[in-house]
Design a protein that fits this description.
5 helices, mainly alpha, single chain
Length: 82
């Protein structure tokens, strides 16, 4: 969900002053229709999880999000600083 549906490193929206100016431009462009980059991240995460859950409804679903390797997180927008 994070890599394919959001594409932005989670810490980049939490700590934008640590992100390069180029990454900040991309983040602001992706989140321009949301209240903030944080709101964009939360909305897209919710949509992604909802899509996965809907595909298996009415069965319960467990979604694991923390399986990224360091280099996979680094490839996300803003990830090079983290």
């Amino acid at each position: 969900v994070v890599a394919n549906h959001i594409g932005i490193h989670p810490n980049a929206v939490l700590d934008p002053e640590k992100v390069s100016p180029e990454a900040r431009i991309i983040i602001n462009e992706k989140s321009k229709n949301d209240e903030s980059p944080k709101a964009f991240f939360i909305r897209r995460l919710s949509e992604g999880i909802g899509s996965i859950a809907a595909a298996f409804y009415p069965r319960p679903v467990i979604v694991r999000l923390g399986d990224f390797k360091s280099n996979e997180y680094r490839r996300l927008v803003g990830g090079e600083q983290f």
